[in-house]
Amino acid sequence: MYLVTVLGNMLIILAVSSDSHLHTPMYFFLSNLSLADIGFTSTTIPKMIVDIQTHSRVITYVGCLTQMFIYGFFGCLDNLLLAVMAYDRFVAICHPLYYPVIMNPQLCGLMILVSLFISLLVSQLHILIVSQLTFFTDVKIPHFFCEPSQLFNLACFEIPTSNILIYFAAAIFGGVPASGIIFSYYKIVSSILRVSSTGGKYRAFSTCGSHLSVVCLFYGTGLGVYLSSPVSHVPRKSAVASVIYTAVTPMLNPFIYSLRNRDIKRAMQRLFNRTA
Question: Taking the model in full, what pTM does it have?
Answer without folding.
Answer: 0.85
